[in-house]
Amino acid sequence: MKIILRESVSNLGNAGDVVEVRPGYGRNFLIPKKKAVLATVGNIRRIEHEKRVALAHQAKLKAGATELAKRLAAVEITIARRVGEQDKLFGSVTAIDIAEKLEPMKLGIERRQIHLEEPIKTLGTFEIPVRLHHDVTQVIKVNVVAQE
Predict the structure, then answer these.
(1) Superkingdom of this entry's organism (predicted)?
(2) Computed from CA positions of residues 141, 100, 70, 134, in that sequence, does the dihedral angle turn out positive or negative?
(3) How many alpha carbons lie under 13 Å from residue 28 in its C-beta half-sphere?
C-alpha cells in the first residue's frame, strides 16, 4: 500500500514522503491517526502544494529573523546587580532578566529565545546567543555591573 506521510514517523520517513507500507499498518494505524493519506494523484498534488506554501512561509520567517538579527547586532545591554565579596552576585542574571531589558526596545524577543548555558553569577561582559529562527542566531552583549 502506498501512502503519503503527513508528519515524520520514526523508522519510516519524513513528512511528505511517499512510502510503501503493509496494508494493515496503513489502514489501521497511520491513516486513522492522520499521520498519512493514501497516495492518490489528487493527494500527491495537494501535499506538493502544502510543501510549497510551507517553504514560502519558512522563507518569509527566515527573512524576518535575518532582519531582526541585523538590528540585534548593535544591541548591548547593562544589568546592575548587588555584589558581595570577590565580585560574586547576590542571586544571578537569567534569561528572564535579559528579556526584561530587551522589552522596552520593542524587538519581540522572548525569554525562550535567549540561550544561557547557566545563569550569570559574576561581573563582566558576556556574549549571549539569541535564537531567532532555527537557522538564524545572533549574539548580544550583556554587561553585568555592580549596583551602586
Answers:
(1) Bacteria
(2) positive
(3) 4
Report the alpha-carbon distance of residue 43 to residue 24 in Å, rounded: 20
Which domains, ranges and CATH numbers included, belong to the chain? 2-63 (3.40.5.10), 69-146 (3.10.430.100)
Does residue 46 register a pLDDT over 90?
A: no
Distances (CA, A) of 60 to 15, 55, 123, 124: 20, 9, 39, 37
Grid cell listed for 47: 501535499
Q: Could you tell me which of 113, 136, 137 has the C-alpha nearest to residue 61?
A: 136
10 Å Cβ neighbour count for 5? 21
Whether the model pTM is above 0.85: no
Which three three-digit cell numbers place residue 53?
A: 506554501
Q: What are phi and psi of 6, to 5 degrees?
A: -90, -20
Please answer whether residues 113 and 131 qualify as being in contact, where contact means their C-beta atoms are separated by less than 8 angstroms.
yes
**Per-residue confidence band for 48, with pLDDT thresholds at 50, 70 and 90:** confident
Residue type, 81: R
Please determine, for residue 107, whether its predicted confidence score (pLDDT) is greater than 90: no
Q: Kindly list the distances between the CA atom of residue 101 and the CA atoms of 120, 129, 147, in Å, as whole numbers in the listed order.
A: 15, 15, 16
